[in-house]
Amino acid sequence: MDEVSAAASGNGMCERNVRDRIGHMQAKKRYFILLSAGTFVVFLFYFGGLQFKASRNQSRREIHSSRNGLQHTSPEHYWPRFPDALRPFVPWDQLENEDYNVHTSPRQKRDANASIYKGKKCRMESCFDFALCKKNGFKVYVYPQQKGEKIAESYQNILAAIEGSRFYTSDPSQACLFVLSLDTLDRDQLSPQYVHNLRSKVLSLHLWNNGRNHLVFNLYSGTWPDYTEDVGFDIGQAMLAKASISTENFRPKFDISIPLFSKDHPRTGGEKGFLKFNTIPPLRKYMLVFKGKRYLTGIGSDTRNALYHVHNGEDVLLLTTCKHGKDWQKHKDSRCDRDNAEYEK
Description:
Helix 8 links the parallel strand 8 and strand 9. It is elongated, with a radius of gyration of 34 Å. The chain is an alpha/beta fold. The protein has helices at about 1-65, 100-105, 105-115, 125, 130-135, 155-165, 200-205, 300-305, 335-345; strands spanning about 140, 175-180, 185, 215-220, 220, 240, 255, 290-295, 315-320. The longest helix is centred in the N-terminal third of the chain and has 66 residues, at about 1-65. It contains 9 helices and 9 strands. This is Exostosin-1.
């Protein structure tokens, strides 16, 4: 009996020791979890407080600067400011015209655009060197014309307008922005204005620097009826001032959407005082005028075929012709004869 009692007593002590050890381990585990959670909360408040403090200090500096008439040294300071700036362009969903898909597969369009939009994620803060603008302000350098290179009249007008402005500089070391003298306006391979071997010519420019701080102008790209946006060379980090640029390729606050203008478009708006202040509506006979091809099929046909709804023949003239391409008569509709007659007046 004594031996049995001693064994039972020993077993009881062992069980208590095991329970004590387990309890001690669980307590240490709870303390460790509490300590970790407390440390995390402290770090959260510390870094959150730093950001909040930095934000408050930045706000105070902005208020102090505005009160004292000081200008910010942000990159935007070096660009010309306009009082009535347009709202930023916000690209909508990447929707595509059904007629566009008829002629070009999605893969073909992606492959065609890949060569010119490798810098698709470019924005001013990532692909533009503002340091070039800090020293001398906003100065624009136009490359000298290369011997034997043809330049269309429309592009000559653009270059002449830049060279005649107060922003122009003939010294590239003073420049903030660079503009090519190579004519990039018409990149339709069927056009007589098309410049061949443009890729090698651009890459040979020692100031090109993968297009950084460059502005490339383009009105036409691709060939009817698909008009892919391939300009024939990789624009790299250059900004693109382009007509009819797709929302898929437009880089907000970096690229510039420009209207499609003809070679006869005047370079200036007339003599000083020609535009009277607050003449709304303007003192002109016509409020809106458009004259161009209708595009019975292919990209752009949806818009062009709807213009007749707005045309009134009085102060709004939207004139289109069906005579486009060799087989236009195959796609001729009931309005073509009347539209062609008005277009040719």
